[in-house]
Amino acid sequence: MVIHNGVDLELYSRIYREVTINTGSRSLYEIAFLGDLNWEYYMLDRIIEGFSVAGNKGLAIRLKIIGDGATRRRPENIARKLRIQGMVSLKGYLDRETLVRELIASDLAITGRPLSRDLWNLTSMRSTIYEYIGAGLPILSFGPEHSYIERFIKHHSLGLYIGSIEPEDIEESIAVMIVD
């Protein structure tokens, strides 16, 4: 089966059978972010700031940024400025099978978007969420209240959506999701 945006569920299924998933207690939770880093609309700066707040509270988490593009150095600079380089891992562009493995090996997926009505934002967000669904990941998403993404995540019980872009709210939601 292929989801209409090209998510090959057969590939996910095959790799899922090959990968050993740690379902026991974790000392480090890996949270995946997937995006085209040629654009800044993902609110990646807010996600990294949320990770900084979480690190100050002692949460053992790592953000895996999967993607590449013109703004690739920006997340590195933000992490360095916040002194959380160890909590942020830039994976860059990955071939299809490696991408699927990275997503499946993650504990949680995260995505956000600004308060924008840009059709490209909405379309790319949906594609990213479909990839997360293919990997079986719970999703933490944030952005404007009463959005399509909020309704989709809540209606299908895919994770947690918060109608905020504040780093403290993002951190609190991360904590809720990794504890539950």
CATH superfamily: Glycogen Phosphorylase B
- Terminus-to-terminus distance: 31 Å
CATH architecture: 3-Layer(aba) Sandwich
Number of strands: 6
- CATH-assigned fold name: Rossmann fold
Which of globular, elongated, flat, extended, rod-shaped describes the shape?
Answer: globular
Gyration radius (Cα, Å) is 15 Å
Describe the main β-sheet briefly.
6 strands, parallel
**Oligomeric category:** single chain
Order of helices and strands, N to C?
A: HEHEHEHEHEHEH
Fraction in helix: 40-55%
In the CATH hierarchy, what is the class? Alpha Beta
Our count of helices gives: 7
Regions with pLDDT < 50 over 5+ consecutive residues? none
Structural class determined from secondary elements: alpha/beta
